[in-house]
Every structure is written in C-alpha cells, then in structure tokens.
Amino acid sequence: MVAIDPHGGGDRGPQQISPDAALGEADHEAFHANLLRAGVDDGVRHVRRMSQEALGEVEGEVSLLYVDGAHRYGPARADLERWGERVVPGGTMLVHDAYNAVGVMVAQLRLMFLSPTWRYVGRSRSLAEYRREQLTGAARLRNAAAQLRGIPWFVRNCLIKLAMVARMRPVARRLGLPDADDWPY
Questions:
Q1: What's the whole-model pTM score?
Q2: Residues 54-64: tens digit of each pLDDT
Q3: Which of 9, 108, 145, 155 has the most crowded CB, counting CB atoms within 10 A?
Q4: In the chain, what are the domain boundaries?
C-alpha cells in the first residue's frame, strides 16, 4: 500500500490553504503513530510529496485508489484524471469530499458525470465510489442520473457552509449541521 501526502499543513479546509510547517509535522507524526498503533507500519510506503509530484514515485497500475486531496478544482481534477488513469479495468476509485467540497464536485461532474469509463457505484455521505468500466449510450445516461441524485445533498452542504461563514450557526443546524460538528463540516 502506498500513501501519498506531503503533510505540509495546508489544504485543511477553506480557511487553511496556506502551508503551516508545524501543523504539517504534527500531521506527519500522527499519521505514522496511527500506522504503528494499527500494526501496519511495515506494509505502508509513505510518499511525502504533493499528489502530482508523486506520480513518478509510484509505478504501475492500482486496483484501489482513494483520493482525498486538495479541495480546489485544479488539484482535484488533476488527481481524478491523472491518478484515475492508473486504475485497472474493474478497479475502484473512492473520492473523498464528493458532493461536499465545491472544487471536488465540479471536477467530479466534469470528469465523471458522462464518463465512458467510470461507473458510479454510490456514495456514503461524502465518499463516492466509482468502478472503472466501459459504458456506452443508455448506460452512460443511467450513470449520470444516478450521480444527479446526490446533488440535493451537495446543495445542502453548500448552504450549511454559507451559514457557517455568515456566522449563522442556528441556520446551519436547521439545515442539518450536527451540534458536535465544526467548521468546515
């Protein structure tokens, strides 16, 4: 298993885009402590680079890809496109912050919505699952319709975030933000 994360302390949410070395180092230490605690540290190779820089560090195809990268459109699109190319036919791509982060959602719609090579399996909250398969005609339209069913949840999440930015926590709660949750989710 290969884990790619620069642990730079940035891209932690809309209010934390700029890198913060101390936060990055704390993330890095927590990541390795979690691997050790789970007893899997010997089975995980960590590439401490930005996603697109790490493309050359990982060879071959993958059967399971979990994308949890930057939430802005450009980096999200690059991750889905360039790393997605490495998924074998029949393989799975899991996309975190799907139907949740605007940049990820726009990239997802642009690349996956009418894709001839990605079948939407479904989602659990903000984790979407796609299977690499060849789709034609009616199958592509059914696939697009299946993805559209998640749009109301995405709109709800955007409204919650707007309410949070406007410091309208009671409105955000009425829209579904649990009491325990805080910015940005």
A1: 0.84
A2: 899 889 999 99
A3: 108
A4: 1-58, 60-149, 151-185
